Amino acid sequence: MSRLLLISSSNVYGYGFLDHAEAEIRRMLTGRGSIAFVPFAQHDHDAYSMIAQERFARMNVQVTQVRNANDVARAESLFIGGGNTFRLLKELYDRALIDPIKKRVCDDGIPYIGSSAGTNVACPTIMTTNDMPIVYPPTFAALDLVSFQINPHYLDADPGSQHKGETREERIEQFHEENATPVIGLREGTMLWVENGATTLLGMTTARLFRQGQESVEVQPGSVIAI
């Protein structure tokens, strides 16, 4: 029953907060007038919630701030925003929200929108996040709403750069040295629409699909991704 919109980033160059994804957000929220916002990826929950409230008000959607499981139980739809993925996951565990969110999304079928860190926690684990581990969640296991990993803000190697650290591709290859789960490198300006067991790439550019032991492939916008 799950319906998910997994956005690489809330902000894209040349656009305001969530502007590039507005059409898909409106479509995901058809018939629903409110959304419960999970602000835990940022330090100031109230300030972050105010940003979400202002943005969704322009789509005639009321935002309520999630603080506990009762807020999740009452939600018509759910949005988990970006920030630090480790901090977000720790708060979800500390507030005992993992199972309530999974029940509402997987069993009750309410729409789930994630952006950046909110996209990361929709995966089986947060092991393909780009963020620093500024806090200690009890486990890397996340909401497990999809069967694959995502690397938001995916960046291609710059052939003109003198940087000698690992590229994003090399880091995903390191993940696959230890783990078999496929990874989608989700470039900024792109998002995944997940519904009825199908995952479709939407947005401005291609994504990259990595599988253990195989060459990575480019995925075109509008394509259903065979994972």
Provide the descriptors you would attach to this structure in a database record.
single chain; 227 residues; alpha/beta; four-stranded mixed beta sheet; 11 strands
Furnish the topology, listing elements before pairings.
Blueprint: E1 3-7, H1 22-28, E2 34-38, H2 45-57, E3 62-65, H3 69-73, E4 78-80, H4 85-94, H5 98-107, E5 112-115, H6 117-120, E6 149-152, H7 168-178, E7 183-186, E8 190-195, E9 198-203, E10 207-210, E11 217-219
Parallel strand pairs: 1-5, 2-3, 2-4, 4-5, 6-7
Antiparallel strand pairs: 1-8, 7-10, 8-9, 10-11
Question: What percentage of residues falls in helices of 4 or more residues?
Answer: 25-40%
- Tell me the strand order in the biggest sheet: 3-2-4-5-1-8-9
Would you identify the regions where 5 or more consecutive residues have pLDDT less than 50? none
Question: Helix count, per DSSP?
Answer: 7
pLDDT averaged over residues:
96
CATH class: Alpha Beta
The tally of strands reads 11
The class by helix and strand makeup works out as alpha/beta
Question: Span between N and C termini?
Answer: 18 Å
For the biggest sheet, the summary is: 7 strands, mixed
